[in-house]
Specification:
Elements lengths: L1 E3 L5 H11 L1 H7 L1 E5 L1 H9 L6 E4 L1 H6 L1 H10 L2 E5 L1 H7 L8 E6 L15 E5 L5 H13 L4 E5 L8 H7 L8 E4 L2 H10 L4 E4 L6 E2 L9 E5 L8 H6 L2 E4 L11 H13 L2
Helix pairs in contact: 1-2, 3-5, 7-8, 7-11
Length: 263
């Protein structure tokens, strides 16, 4: 096991880039899981640990997770708490950093079936919202989550933390062609609904979503573009009793996922 104390170490420089830069994650096909629990969740979900960086204090504080990660890691580096503080994306780092390969999020390998339950996120902006939606989708048994390629990076630290490990267990696909995705849905007889406040929109509680369907949810500020709504089979709304005009995107997505899960 190599011990590293300097931020100028080449391995630490690369680790810092992977944490901070989407471009570097895309180039290498790698990302960093920071924290004992999320790193252990990744390993339990079948991901290989290419590199493990941890402090002696982390070994003592998280013995089970540290043992699992150490057993699976190809390379292990011991770092100081001071160095962990400098490279961490959190204010109180746990001293555990795992370098892992990205999951298969390609459209070509995505499977769809007629009775499946799907959410599609279009141009979402907030990483925290995306992480919360992933967590809700996993909790309610959504079969696959689709993201347009202008949504936040799945492997950014904020998204990873908000998913509570759900990102490793929920099938997620990134798409750059919504019409192509909709054609794939229709080919399997999956109805496609737009979550949109417009005249003629159907009450989501009155639809048989538990029998299968795809619901498209838009940007936090602007909602769905009119051309996307026009492509869908129909628009749907979540009934609200108060005076609020709309719901937060993650709240709306969670309600939709619950409606799909209802018996």
């Amino acid at each position: 096991m190599e011990r590293i104390t300097s931020r100028e170490n080449p391995q630490i420089k690369q680790l810092t880039k992977l944490i901070a830069q989407k471009k570097e994650r895309t180039r290498t096909g790698l990302f960093v899981a920071e924290g004992a629990r999320i790193a252990a969740d990744a390993v339990k979900s079948g991901l290989a640990v290419e590199q493990l960086f941890l402090t002696p204090q982390a070994r003592e504080r998280y013995p089970q997770e540290a043992a699992l990660l150490t057993e699976k890691a190809q390379k292990i580096y011991e770092i100081t708490p001071e160095l962990a503080q400098k490279i961490a994306n959190t204010n109180t780092p746990q001293g555990v950093f795992c370098v892992l390969p990205m999951l298969d999020n390609h459209f070509q390998t995505a499977t769809i079936w007629g009775t499946g339950h799907y959410l599609v996120l279009c141009s979402l902006q907030d990483p925290g919202n995306l992480g919360t939606i992933i967590r809700s989708c996993e909790a309610f048994g959504i079969d696959r989550l689709f993201l347009t390629d202008d949504c936040p990076d799945l492997y950014s630290p904020k998204v990873l933390r908000a998913t509570m490990g759900g990102v490793f267990r929920l099938p997620i696909t990134v798409v750059d062609n919504l019409p192509g995705l909709f054609e794939k849905f229709w080919g399997e007889k999956v109805p496609v609904y737009a979550a949109a406040l417009q005249e003629g929109a159907k009450d989501i509680t009155q639809l048989p979503l538990n029998q299968g369907g795809a619901v498209v949810i838009g940007n936090e500020g602007k909602g769905l573009p009119p051309e996307v709504v026009a492509l869908c089979d129909s628009a749907v709304i979540i009934p609200m009793a108060g005076r609020a005009e709309s719901l937060n995107a993650s709240v709306a997505a969670s309600i939709v996922a619950w409606e799909m899960a209802r018996p």
